[in-house]
Amino acid sequence: MTTFEFPEHFLWGGAIAANQAEGAYLEDGKGLSIVDLLPTGEKRRNIMKGHVPAFTPLEGEFYPSHEAIDFYHRYREDIALFAEMGFKALRVSIAWARIFPTGEDAQPNEAGLQFYDDLFDELLKHGIQPVVTLAHFDVPVHLIEKYGSWRSRQLVTLFETYAKTVFARYKDKVKYWMTFNEINMLLHLPFLGAGLAFNEGDNIKEIQYQAAHHQLVASALAVKACHEIIPDAMIGCMLAAGSFYPYTCNPEDVYQGMEKDRESYFFIDVQSRGEYPGYAKRFFKDNQLNIVMEPQDADILKNHTVDYIGFSYYSSRTTSTDPEVVKNMTSGNVFGSVANPYLAKSEWGWTIDPKGFRITANQLHDRYQKPLFVVENGFGANDEVNAAGQIDDSYRIDYLKRHVAEMGEAIQDGCNIIGYTSWGPIDIVSASSGEMRKRYGYIYVDRDNEGKGELTRLKKKSFEWYKNVIASRGTELGDE
């Protein structure tokens, strides 16, 4: 494994989301949000797909986001630990419903605004740059009930108001922004991704792409507002990335791999290039999808493209047109991948493919020619505390060091990667499963799947490893 000295101003750090870390789900005036309606257990995935039983939490269900890891009250101690590791950046999200509890309040909630003021001040005190996502699987529930969430054009206006409010408030504190987290997730888990709940007889595909159009216009208007209010800021988009490999060199497999990649690239093509690609227009026509667009939308999209491409990378995916091969699907992968015989898998069925990280970065660089920001990458595992109170997560170190090495290779390939914020530097609630058992952190949190535990923080073996990676600018990744 060759090592590479990363650029001096490279943004090393970690990434969390408000709904998976903060807790305090109704404290200080906050309204209900998407994830506050997602219980742990077998019902969770069905609700994520848009089959929502109720717009209030149900009796007898456990909702892990309601307390999460209590970052809302403990952020100072957690940030001190991030600073000890040498973080240059922490990616967080603002909870939209903390700022506008219903999404259409006449005035923002001052207590919510003050919380993020205090959070950003604490980060900056430690020399850590806030990297802020405006919407990380986050829509106020009131807007889902009243308007059907992003299926309604009204959300474009309400989101623009929210974005302008936080840009104006934090213009001197936050210089790195993102609009929508993993925007392509609305095609796979539409309630989680965009607050879309479906009724019998709905044209689901049309609703999804109408919602996507509204998010793309809202993203462009947020870029416009950011450039006007904070001229020295950078604002990007964010893709759940990971290339689709064809299972064989059969041209049908190769074509399907391209089509699968385009499902995701579609969003970033619009956000980065400023117009709908020809393949998307054909898809709408072939599937008779009537997407309503306002006359001014083309200019809005064209004139307000993103400054950088943020992306998550956990694993590659594999696709096949052979019915026999398709029977062998990996479990747990939102994107529906067939098993790749050349790759190992995590306990949750995610393929482990460091080389795929380099491939994906190069594809994004070649396609967009814009700075790239790796804003999620990590390894979910069931970490155990031993009798001595220690957590040996050598498997995580192995995963991360191989990915960091491939990121270094991608930079040497010519990819302009400006930072790396690994996912869940402290254990948080898993977005996909609602579990605490699926841990990503360098810092262990004493909390189990039932919400029991003292929330005590413990350093894992990977804590010192990552601290050393940052201090050495990536030249010391540990033994091979």
Question: How would you characterize this protein structure?
Answer:
This protein has 480 residues and is of the alpha/beta class. The protein has a single domain, classed as Glycosidases (TIM Barrel). Helices cover 39% and strands 12% of the residues. The chain has an 8-stranded parallel β-barrel with strand order 1-2-3-4-5-7-9-10, surrounded by 5 helices. A two-stranded parallel ribbon has the order 6-8. β9 (372-376), α15 and β10 form a beta-alpha-beta unit. α3 (71-85) packs parallel to α5 (110-125), α7 packs parallel to α9 and α14 packs parallel to α15. It is globular and about 60 Å long. The model has no long low-confidence stretch (mean pLDDT 96).
Name a few traits of the molecule.
alpha/beta; 12% strand; TIM Barrel; 480 residues; two-stranded parallel ribbon
Considering DSSP H and I runs of 4 or more, what fraction of the residues is helical? 25-40%
Total beta strands = 12
Integer count of domains: 1
**Structural class determined from secondary elements:** alpha/beta
Task: Strand order, main sheet: write it out.
Answer: 1-2-3-4-5-7-9-10
- Proportion of beta-strand residues: 5-15%
Rough outline: globular
